[in-house]
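sry for the spam today, last one i promise. struct tokens for design, 669 residues
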């Protein structure tokens, strides 16, 4: 029997493992099983080149728990190790600069383990003692038994082992008794080992029979050794991709919309399948669904920094041995391979979408509503993706027709270009609430888009900015500007000004009189402002509009930091009084004119009226006569008009609505 100290150059490895590698201790199982799988794969390779002789026999890796002995064992029938190899691979651990590194990555067990190739030693995170029993595949070699109790001292001796391969026996520390529970261990195996290329057996299969669970003879195999992404696309049917999706996400009941099979050999290795889920209006619930594997070993489902943010909305798997996993997350972004991988995936996704659009536009349109959010997110966050997606990104109008931006511009160019040469695209966010406004726009022969998505406001601003850039590049062919304007943001005649708009003949004083008459009945003086427009005679007498810029700023602030100033502002509306409407003209005719004395405006030396400067000498308390207009006896009509405006915009609810209803009944009496 040999005794010795583990060859750690600078410092003892065990305190390091115990002290720092605490948070991620469950990965010990992944590490040991990865080693077992590697040893098995090596044997298969050696056999295929004739270096390992004979029938390889049973190659399953088995995980067993002995509750009495408090051990967890990982057994394989792989290449095994000779005493020499144990000495070389297990005892001599180059561990220079350990402390420095460990301090830097204290809470990143993964990084430490990866960095030092300490897979095997992670077993000490949860064990008081670890034993190795190994029989090499090489003929005429003795089996070896290695044992170490978590201090640098180990023992090594010859032993007898009937079968080729390695058993790693962990004497689980009391604190980690959960690793002696079947459910915990099975959970971990399913998390990390679900798609390993060698069968992993844990206990026996169970079945419900006559109301109780019975054990079958058959072993319980944890993994699918040929997951879809490792197979050739030509060998897979649509059904296989769907089944694999459900294998990946057993709790996901929606079917994916479509998939992309990734397969790259050069200049890096990458395989995987990405699925497009139906993306509803809540971006966050879709995040962190892509699973990252390294040679079929599960690594993480947090793929930020590895793929662009908008791609984290997709589901599926990426498997690449070329993603450095033993570095800090923030470093990943600057890694060259990661950059290449990320831009490759972006390109593939854009290609696939473009191809779908080209090959079957109708089908693409039918999927649009479900992928729109993803595509807009991509266009907003990645210039390159924008450049490619602009040719298949769609706009949908209220009749449910789809257009690319260019197609749509061509459609409405003749009717919706204003007198200054600006192209105005009209939209609604809620077709019901804006019904009256939409009707007025349609009556003018205009088309209205539906922009009810979570990112539509941002997407519209982006299209406007891009159009501005394009028009400054090419003044001849582009319209002066492209603007999206919500149909209810102003009188339609103002949104798309054709010739000089109609004017009314009322004086400012008269309008002031009408304004004062309305104001006491407004729901809220901070939110509603009275204004006058000579709109069409058949438009509503009074209606609400909401400034496009302010409303958009407010909506955009919901997603953007640093814009909370806008977010905190109350919604503001104009109560527009339509001076072309007979009812309003009638109100104007009912104004009573009177003269009031008002203090004269203060005069200064610069006043150019010689008359005034003379009189200022004679009398210090000067007054002038001012004409004012008042409206009385019309309270019920004013209230009714305001309520009609609120009602037409879907803003009349609760008590005011009830009052409106009973007032309307009274009016009929
Ligand atoms: P890594 O796997 O990163 O090289 P480990 O500490 O996990 O680091 O293992 C060190 C070495 O010990 C492996 O490279 C392999 O040669 C050997 N080894 C570990 N486990 C086994 C096993 N189950 N069968 C055969 N060899 C093994």
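last one done:
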């Amino acid at each position: 029997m040999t005794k010795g100290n583990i060859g750690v150059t600078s410092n003892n490895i065990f305190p390091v493992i115990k002290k720092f590698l605490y948070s991620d201790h469950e990965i010990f199982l992944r590490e040991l099983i990865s080693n077992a799988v590697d040893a098995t794969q090596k044997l298969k390779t050696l056999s295929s080149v004739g270096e390992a002789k004979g029938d390889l026999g049973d190659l399953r890796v088995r995980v067993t728990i002995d509750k009495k002995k408090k051990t967890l064992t990982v057994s394989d029938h792989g290449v095994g190790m000779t005493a020499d190899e144990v000495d070389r691979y297990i005892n001599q651990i180059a561990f220079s600069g350990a402390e420095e590194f460990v301090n830097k990555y204290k809470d990143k067990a993964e990084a430490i383990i990866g960095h030092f190739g300490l897979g095997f030693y992670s077993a000490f995170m949860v064990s008081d003692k670890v034993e190795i029993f190994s029989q090499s595949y090489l003929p005429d070699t003795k089996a070896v038994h290695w044992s170490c109790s978590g201090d640098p001292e180990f023992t090594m001796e010859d032993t007898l082992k009937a079968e080729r391969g390695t058993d790693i026996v962990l004497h689980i520390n009391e604190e980690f008794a959960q690793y002696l529970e079947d459910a915990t261990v099975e959970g971990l195996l399913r998390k990390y080992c679900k798609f390993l290329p060698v069968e992993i057996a844990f206990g026996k299969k169970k079945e419900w029979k006559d109301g109780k669970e019975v054990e079958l003879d058959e072993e319980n195999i944890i993994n699918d050794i040929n997951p879809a992404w490792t197979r050739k696309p030509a060998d897979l049917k649509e059904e296989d991709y769907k089944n694999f999706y459900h294998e990946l996400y057993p709790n996901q009941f929606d079917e994916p919309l479509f998939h992309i099979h990734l397969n790259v050999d050069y200049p890096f290795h990458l395989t995987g399948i990405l699925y497009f889920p139906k993306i509803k209006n809540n971006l966050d619930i879709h995040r962190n669904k892509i699973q990252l594997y390294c040679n079929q070993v599960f690594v993480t489902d947090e793929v930020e920094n590895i793929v662009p943010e908008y791609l984290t909305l997709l589901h599926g798997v990426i498997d690449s041995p070329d993603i450095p996993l033993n570095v800090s997350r923030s470093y990943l972004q600057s890694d060259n391979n990661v950059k290449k991988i990320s831009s490759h995936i972006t390109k593939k996704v854009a290609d696939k979408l473009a191809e779908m659009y080209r090959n079957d536009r109708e089908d693409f349109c039918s999927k649009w509503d479900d992928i729109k959010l993803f595509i807009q997110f991509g266009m907003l966050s990645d210039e390159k993706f924008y450049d490619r997606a602009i040719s298949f990104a769609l706009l949908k109008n209220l009749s449910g027709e789809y257009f690319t931006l260019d197609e749509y511009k061509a459609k409405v160019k003749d009717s919706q270009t204003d007198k200054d040469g600006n192209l105005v695209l009209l939209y609604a966010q809620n077709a019901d609430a804006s019904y009256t406004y939409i009707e007025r726009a349609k009556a003018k022969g205009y088309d209205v888009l539906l922009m009810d998505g979570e990112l539509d406001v941002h997407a519209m601003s982006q299209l406007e900015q891009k159009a501005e850039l394009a028009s400054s590049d090419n003044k001849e062919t582009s319209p002066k500007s492209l603007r999206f304007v919500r149909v209810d943001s102003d009188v339609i005649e103002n949104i798309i000004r054709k010739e000089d708009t109609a004017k009314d003949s009322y004086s400012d004083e008269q309008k002031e009189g009408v304004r004062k008459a309305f104001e006491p009945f407004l729901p809220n003086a901070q939110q509603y402002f009275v204004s006058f427009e000579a709109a069409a005679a058949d438009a509503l007498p009074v209606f609400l509009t909401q400034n496009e810029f302010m409303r958009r700023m407010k909506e955009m602030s919901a997603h953007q930091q640093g814009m909370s100033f806008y977010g905190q502002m109350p919604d503001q509306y104009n109560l527009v009084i339509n001076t072309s409407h007979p009812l309003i003209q009638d109100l104007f005719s009912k104004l009573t004119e009177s003269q009031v004395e008002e203090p004269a405006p203060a005069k200064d030396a610069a006043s150019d009226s010689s008359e005034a400067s003379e009189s200022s000498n004679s009398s210090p308390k000067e007054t002038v006569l001012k004409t004012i207009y008042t409206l009385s006896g019309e309270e019920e009509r004013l209230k009714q008009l305001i309520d009609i405006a609120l009602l037409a915009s879907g803003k009349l609810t609760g008590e005011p609505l009830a009052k409106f209803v009973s007032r309307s009944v009274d009016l009929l009496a």
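Confidence is low (pLDDT under 50) at residues 94-98, 612-616. ok im logging off now
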